[in-house]
Amino acid sequence: MNPENWEDILREAHNEPIDPAHYTAVRARVVSRVGLLACPNRAKPGRFFRHLAWISAAVALLLTLALHRSGTPPQPPRITLAIPAAPPAPITRPRPAHLARALRPHREPLTIKLQTSDPNIVIYWIAD
Amino acid sequence: METMKALAITAMSIPADPPRPAGTVLAAACAGDLAAFDTLMRQYERLVLVTALRLTGSLPDAQDISQEVFLKLYRNLRKVEDSGLASWLYRVTVNACHDQRRRRRPESPVEFAALVPSTDLDPQQTLTQAERRRVLELSLRMLPDKERAAFVLRDLEGLPTEEVARILGSSEVTVRSQISKARVKIKDFVERYFRRRT
Fold this sequence. Notes:
The complex is a heterodimer. Chain A is mostly helical. Chain A contains 5 helices and 2 strands.
């Protein structure tokens, strides 16, 4: 080989055929992956179960709502705080006015003495 | 369950985008024809695998990258233009190789087992072939990523500089500079390699 023709040497080496088995191996790998890509359920087996879980959850939610609505109407909340009733008022007969006045205890009338600047004038205010 | 499956199949069979012009393999693959997609892979498998092999220097890595590129193509069938498919594949391959190299430093040893020696060659020819391969692998390996990509696309794959610039997302001036540097380095390496051998 003549190093002067280095470009030819490299080009010839570059153009040497490659074993077809290497191409076949690549194609087989690609086709198997493409087959998985084309079939979503096979490509990701977990996806099916994820969908199933979501659908189950949705069905359960719908069933719960449906059962809840079709049943008896909900009872109103009970008042648990009891207000005690007022004690019964004693029944007494009204007394006659004269008797009531006679029974009323005697009290001294309220007397207020007002002194003015004039010592001869004193004002008394008596309240009954 | 059956209803869900039927709905899923119906949804898959209805194209979300307006239909592409029929008559091309890409259009058929777009419509969900896996056989057409297989034909598409056969058309471009050399482009992707060999480019990835030159950029990574490892056959298992190149195969992983090829798989990644074709899966990406499958996901983007509706977005890819028929005329620009090769450029799109080159770009995605180069980007995937850069990502892979970033993820996997330090570099793994170069593998030379990718190519099959022709059985009809005599031992001397086989040795020469193996040596050529070795020179190519080592030459590319010593180049920085961007120079290597520019050199592989321009000098080995034979793309015009303009297209290489488009694929690499650089200007033509940058690509020319990268190729020029790469050529100088490779020429120097090959000369030293053979001088040491003799």
